[in-house]
Amino acid sequence: MIYVRAFELGYYPIRGFLAWAEGDRTAIFVDPGGWDDAIATLLETLGLTLGAILLTHGHEDHTGGVDAMVANLGAPVYAHAGDMALLARRPDTVLAGDECVPCGSLAWRVLPVAGHTDGSVAYAAGDVVFTGDTLFAGAIGGTANLAAYEQERFAIRTQLFPLGDATRVYPAHGPATTIGIERRANPFLR
Q: What count of other Cβ atoms lies within 10 Å of the Cβ of residue 44?
C-alpha cells in the first residue's frame, strides 16, 4: 500500500505530495512549490525521513520550496535534464527519463511526458502516479504550441495509459483521478 498526503503550497498554490509505502521509514516529496512546517511535523509524527525531492518540471510554482525543503530535511533533489534552464538551483541528480529513483521499498519510475515543458516527467510506483501539470482530472497541461500539445497527448497515451486503469493519478492542480477515468472521459485525449 502506498500512502499519499497532499499539501497546498506556494504563492500560486499547487499540490505537493508526500508519499511512502506501508512499512517504510523513508518517503518522497513531489513538487515542493513552497514550504510548510506541517511537512516536517508529519514526517516526525510518522517516524519517516525524506529520501528524495522529485520535480515533475521546472516551473517556479512547483519548485519554489526546494531550498527550504533541502535546508529543513536534507533530501537530494531530482529533475529532468530538459528543464535545467528553468531551475534556480541544479538538482543533485539530473534525470534523462526511463530510470528509477529508489526510496524505501519502492522504485519510482521516471516517465518522460514532455509537452508542458521539455523536461516534464511523471513518477510512478505501484498503483500511484504523480503527473505534475501533464494530466489533470478532465484536462491536460498547457503547452506553448500545437507541436508541444501533440507531444504531450502522445506522451500521456504511451507513458501514462499503460500504467493501467486502476492507477491513481495525483496532479498538481485539481482533484485526484484514475487512468481509467481519464482514458474514457478526458475530452483532450479522445
A: 10
